[in-house]
């Protein structure tokens, strides 16, 4: 997916904790299906440690949500440098606090760090690419340092899932680099590890065997029909799921939809990744797409869970953003599938 966010005004620092100083997260038993929602931010993440975040977690749990994801940022530079590593005196409580709050409410958590590309020539993470081996070396060295620090924070609060990266259309081709990163993450983190491949690239990833879940950003195009009905949307998903299930069986792992969402747009079934909103029957088409997708796990056990994009803590001065789930219609759909029926 090609995301669009507000400009980050500051970057998070990190706390280094030795894995030997705490017990590993207990992950031997199968985890419950992740009925997940990504709680997003409109700054660098300070919202995640506000009273509004606590209210958000309470509301999500009341709807039947049993897991949340947050996405702390680092900034990419055009020379390959990743700015977001540990800095003296910079707090990381905006990352650890919401993970702890989720656990206090009996909810699991996924940490899915994002690379911010604003202010560069890259229009989304899938365009991050470098011309020279030196730049690639800089990128992977900086990225590994940062992502291991993020994994250390995930371990400190025993987050159930950690995503080592997402949407790196070019970078994900460097298989051995990613195997090194994954091994480094597992050296400090004992939960489940995944990677988020874009919907049209998951079969190109060569390091799935090193991970626990087949992570995908599930923005699969469903139909170009104007005002598609529920049955047509469902039939399109079933066709898609047949391919996903084959891939799942071949790799011996479940799929985790690390991101899934539908904008309020008349084009959302055709282009779920699109940020343009509006159009005829936009609200109804969005609701149909969400309704069908929420019903998929009941028929497809190869899906380990899904994290819906996205929810914001209700902070008054913040503008509403695209992909927001906070409507009465969508809340009712989440409740129907995740609370009332299961």
List keywords for this structure.
342 residues; three-stranded mixed β-sheet; alpha/beta; 7 helices; globular; eight-stranded parallel beta barrel; TIM Barrel; disordered N terminus
Account of the protein in words:
By secondary structure, the protein is of the alpha/beta class. It has one domain: TIM Barrel (Alpha-Beta Barrel). It is built from 7 helices and 11 strands. Residues about 1-25 and about 85-90 have low confidence and may be disordered.
CATH superfamily: Glycosidases
Distinct helical segment count: 7
Architecture (CATH level 2) name: Alpha-Beta Barrel
Strands, total number: 11
Radius of gyration: 19 Å
Helix percentage range: 25-40%
Backbone structural class: alpha/beta
- Total discrete domains: 1
Short description:
With 342 residues, this protein is an alpha/beta fold. The protein has a single domain, classed as TIM Barrel. It contains seven helices and eleven strands.
Describe the secondary structure blueprint for this structure:
Layout: E1 34-39, H1 51-63, E2 67-70, E3 73-76, E4 82-83, H2 93-104, E5 108-111, E6 114-116, H3 133-156, E7 161-166, H4 175-186, E8 192-198, E9 214-217, H5 230-251, E10 255-260, H6 282-295, E11 303-311, H7 328-340
Parallel strand pairs: 1-2, 1-11, 2-5, 3-6, 5-7, 7-8, 8-9, 9-10, 10-11
Antiparallel strand pairs: 3-4
Helix pairs in contact: 3-4, 5-6, 6-7
């Amino acid at each position: 997916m090609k995301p669009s966010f507000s400009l980050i005004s500051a970057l998070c620092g990190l706390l280094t904790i030795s894995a030997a100083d705490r017990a590993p997260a207990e992950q031997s038993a199968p985890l419950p299906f992740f009925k997940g929602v990504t709680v997003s931010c409109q700054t660098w993440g300070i919202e995640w440690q506000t009273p509004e975040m606590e209210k958000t977690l309470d509301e999500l749990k009341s709807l039947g949500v049993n897991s949340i994801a947050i996405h702390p940022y680092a900034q990419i530079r055009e020379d390959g440098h990743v700015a977001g590593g540990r800095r003296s005196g910079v707090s990381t409580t905006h990352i650890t606090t919401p993970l702890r709050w989720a656990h206090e409410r009996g909810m699991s958590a996924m940490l899915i760090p994002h690379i911010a590309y604003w202010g560069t020539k890259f229009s989304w993470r899938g365009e991050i690419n470098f011309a020279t081996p030196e730049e690639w070396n800089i990128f992977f060295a900086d990225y590994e340092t940062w992502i291991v620090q993020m994994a250390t924070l995930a371990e400190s609060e025993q987050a159930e899932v950690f995503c080592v990266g997402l949407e790196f259309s070019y970078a994900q081709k460097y298989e051995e680099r990613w195997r090194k990163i994954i091994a480094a993450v597992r050296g400090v983190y004992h939960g489940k590890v995944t990677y988020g491949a874009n919907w049209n690239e998951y079969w190109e990833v060569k390091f799935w065997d090193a991970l626990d879940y087949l992570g995908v950003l599930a923005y699969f195009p469903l139909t170009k029909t104007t005002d598609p009905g529920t049955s047509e949307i469902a039939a399109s998903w079933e066709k898609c799921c047949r391919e996903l299930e084959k891939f799942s069986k071949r790799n011996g792992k479940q799929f985790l939809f690390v991101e899934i969402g539908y904008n309020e747009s008349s084009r959302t079934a055709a282009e779920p990744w699109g940020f343009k909103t509006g159009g005829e029957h936009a609200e109804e088409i969005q609701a149909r797409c969400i309704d069908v997708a929420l019903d998929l796990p009941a028929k497809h056990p190869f899906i380990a869970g899904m994290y819906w994009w996205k929810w914001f803590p209700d902070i008054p001065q913040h503008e509403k953003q695209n992909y927001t789930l906070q409507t009465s219609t969508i809340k009712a759909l989440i409740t129907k599938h995740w609370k009332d029926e299961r």
